[in-house]
Specification:
12 helices; alpha/beta; 5-stranded parallel β-sheet; single chain; globular
């Protein structure tokens, strides 16, 4: 709860997390009563542009699932799609098995589509056969993730929970800027009123760019100014 409150913006994401939390709690209670729901799992997909908080929220989700008792370990393993596919199926199996008991977060998961169909098969099998042992969160751009799911119908049958991360507004980017400068290299800074208007204009221009990095764009602005 406290971690979510500290996150700037993402109101829709926070609402979806609360809904997901209720479903996860229901699943845990059903399991404890011996009423295991057929084929139930909590695998998820996070879609959205870079810098919208997908990784941060995934870490919070891992702690939440551990607190609820759905996973046995407070363990969060983060890899990229191309890293998972950078080798044979035995290597991929070892990485996946290492995440059992916790959460496996695969960022830029769409890269698996380009590099390894055999590894995708290994992942999908684990998501099905070991759905009680771990939670897999797949993340990436919406368009590319749609292509990944279209490439293998196994994804849609195993991933039933989805959260979309919208881009930050200019004012939210300004709030993030202020958050970053409150403690920059152990020094606290404040933003001049005139500088706020200038930054808002810059963020407005940045939002029109295809390379918008959201919070990363803000961090780069802070570093450039400093």
């Amino acid at each position: 709860e406290e971690s979510l409150k500290k996150i700037i913006g993402l109101n829709t994401v926070k609402e979806n997390i609360k809904k997901f939390e209720k479903y996860a709690l229901y699943t845990v209670k059903a399991r404890n009563l011996g009423l295991e729901m057929n084929k139930s799992n909590l695998h998820m997909i996070f879609t959205g542009n870079p810098g919208t908080g997908k990784t941060t929220v995934a870490r919070i989700m891992a702690k939440m699932l551990y607190d609820l008792g759905y996973i046995k370990k407070n363990q969060y393993i983060e890899i990229s799609g191309d890293y998972l596919c950078a080798g044979d199926t035995n290597r991929a199996s070892a990485i996946i098995e290492y995440s059992y008991g916790g959460v496996l977060f695969i960022d830029e998961a769409y890269l698996m589509y380009r590099t390894g169909s055999e590894v995708i098969g290994v992942l999908l099998k684990a998501m099905e056969d070991h759905r009680k042992d771990f939670v897999c969160i797949l993340a990436g751009y919406e368009e590319q993730m749609t292509k990944l799911f279209a490439s293998n119908e196994g994804f849609s049958s195993r991933v039933k929970h989805s959260i979309y991360f919208t881009d930050y507004s200019e004012n939210e980017m300004l709030d993030i800027f202020n958050f970053f400068i409150k403690d920059y290299n152990n020094t606290s800074y404040k933003l001049d009123e005139d500088a706020k208007d200038a930054l808002l204009k810059i963020f407005t221009l940045e939002k029109k760019s295809k390379s918008l990095g959201n919070a990363r764009t803000v961090r780069n602005a802070v570093d450039a100014i400093m």
